[in-house]
Amino acid sequence: MIPPPRILTIAGSDSSGGAGIQADIKTITMLGGYAMTAITAITAQNTLGVSAVEVLSPDLVVAQIEACASDIGINAVKIGMLGSPEIAHAVADLLESANVPVVFDPVMIATSGAALADAATIAAFERLMKLATLTTPNVPELLALGGDTGIAARGIAYLAKGGDADGPEVEDRLVIPGEDQRIWRGMRVQTRHTHGTGCTLASAIATLLGQGLPLVDAVEGARRFVRAALIAAPGFGSGHGPLGHQAVR
């Protein structure tokens, strides 16, 4: 039997199971990967918002990553919520020498609107964007990073996600330096159950890259997974509910 790709997700824990580490584990597993975790922060949250956050120490985050890498091994990495600039720099220190695909979701604001990164943490994102195979900002995150002009000036590959934009159609743009941009458009799934879409997309891309797919194919496959999970959302919660990862085949 061919062993599954070993995917490490470095992110925060969502107690309600819709986003963060929990969404990543579900996504990686449903796509045939082996999920490992380095938890950066513990949050108390549900479909209505984040009520408490406790950030872990950089040393503990590093210890989790090293424990996975030294024994099981890693084929791809997904980075989500980091929690502090110290954690961001510690993760960058470790990954600069890693020869595996890295997908960086620059988490700044939760679907509910809660801020998940301060200015110093966002500034530390620069190192992670440089080493990442792909950075996946949503509309407000792209604006915070200087828009298309600002992020393109960094010379990095990025996926500009359009799910937060208005309109009946969603447009995602993959920009790879030196290549024509790729654009995907599709009718918006009309649902309020969108909690964890960014986490799910990034971890799906990382899993498919870990399986050896080219970047464009990995993005296409991940988009299909997210759309199917949106359609299969179980309807939990009275706010932005979770996706239906378990229903996607």
Automatic annotation (TrEMBL):
Keywords: Kinase, Transferase. Its EC number is 2.7.1.49. It holds the Pfam family Phos_pyr_kin. Pathway: Cofactor biosynthesis; thiamine diphosphate biosynthesis. Residues 14-243 form the Pyridoxamine kinase/Phosphomethylpyrimidine kinase domain. GO terms for molecular function: hydroxymethylpyrimidine kinase activity; phosphomethylpyrimidine kinase activity. The keyword Transferase applies. This is hydroxymethylpyrimidine kinase. It comes from Novosphingobium aquae. The lineage of its organism: Bacteria, Pseudomonadati, Pseudomonadota, Alphaproteobacteria, Sphingomonadales.
